[in-house]
């Protein structure tokens, strides 16, 4: 099946800029000629924006300048006119306090970049964690045809014959170093071997989870999310994106025809089956809401309970990395295992249905992509907890935590800030036992600020030295998708705005019952009421600029942390430029 052509050159959005015989259009045409193009290059052709999140402080996108050339090759071949525009890079590695503070800035920039410019279609180039949701959120709102080009994972890490996984092995060896088991020379070797090429983190961290979600939603070419960044297939995929977006413009294949409730559900199922990053919860909800699809934490918990985890990729899986996943058949092969659970009629950027895209997908290695009959875990990518500590929900990744914590009760050790925790955690006289529940608060969307990835709270050195590597930890922060452990995250409402986590005191008993999806502090209602009266809100972090705006408009984790005024349904939609 292919889609009928719906547009002629006169209907192109860009025709508004270039076609009229008036002074403004004269200016637009003459400025493209200033760039060395002739009318034959652009008149009557779909103008395709390549929104490129390249930056020299985003190592994950180091190949994007070259990749944009592959995309252009495809666009010109298919009879389109390509223009490359920079987009905010939102790099995960260098941005302080957290890249999450800027996901919505990218989304706003994308929306306005598209709205204000003569673009008929867009290729979105992203991959490093927040870039996928940022680009997709903005593009959904902007409403022109888009295709997502995922950066692809970097090569496997390697040091001294050991395979290294992004993030996960950094945490693991850091704990060993704190225990005195890793020499300076080994630490240097690990540092040089853990990130060997362009591309995103090659564990199933936030980046690979989010690009898989974009793929499963139908926003990428089929299976594009699994292709390693430096594989020549990635270049070919780039050119294919360029060729395809031109046809998508003629077909008027806009995101609202693709990102439907069924496509969001498909994406959520696939996320669960990959052992997704907990960050997926926040981003998936935010993207869905942009498309007018209500997705709740409870919907995700319900899917988490029934979806087997079949991607044996770290950190939830045991042995493999994204490169292995690609060679085992990649996302198409994984989705083919889930055929019976997915809505195969969803339309995708190919102009075909998801079912058609999955035809012929083969699993080449059943240890990496497991059959449903032999999952890594029968359920448990994500679970949502509720209780008097988190009335609006909290998230945990059961598959990544020691099962002995699934039902756990212990005394809280509460830190009010990350620096306070950092200062105390290596004090070997710290009053902790393996049963202690470590708590960090003021780390949510407003408190962090930006809900930093602090949620895999460090195990106190006193316990590390005794050989412990996991304990129950609770925060209103997020954690990296490459993290692991018994970490309860995204506690909502957050403590900074007076959520119940703000009322917890060191020594209070905390109880988690994962099978019952409960998280409670065992403190009486009267006592909590007293503490609530005594609570004073902390000083705001920002009194000007972006942070001020962020603090006023960001929603809580259970609503996706979008800005209230950017959500679908807020106010009248922006119109086309009228001058
Ligand atoms: Fe970019 Fe992990 S730092 S994907
Ligand atoms: Mg990450």
UniProtKB/TrEMBL annotation:
Segments forming domain Dihydroxy-acid/6-phosphogluconate dehydratase C-terminal: 367-561
Keyword entries, A-Z: Iron, Iron-sulfur, Lyase, Metal-binding
Ranges for domain Dihydroxy-acid/6-phosphogluconate dehydratase N-terminal: 45-357
GO molecular function: hydro-lyase activity; iron-sulfur cluster binding; metal ion binding
UniProt keyword Iron-sulfur, yes or no: yes
Superkingdom, natural source: Bacteria
Family: Belongs to the IlvD/Edd family.
Protein name: Dihydroxy-acid dehydratase
Species annotation: Szabonella alba
UniProt lineage: Bacteria, Pseudomonadati, Pseudomonadota, Alphaproteobacteria, Rhodobacterales
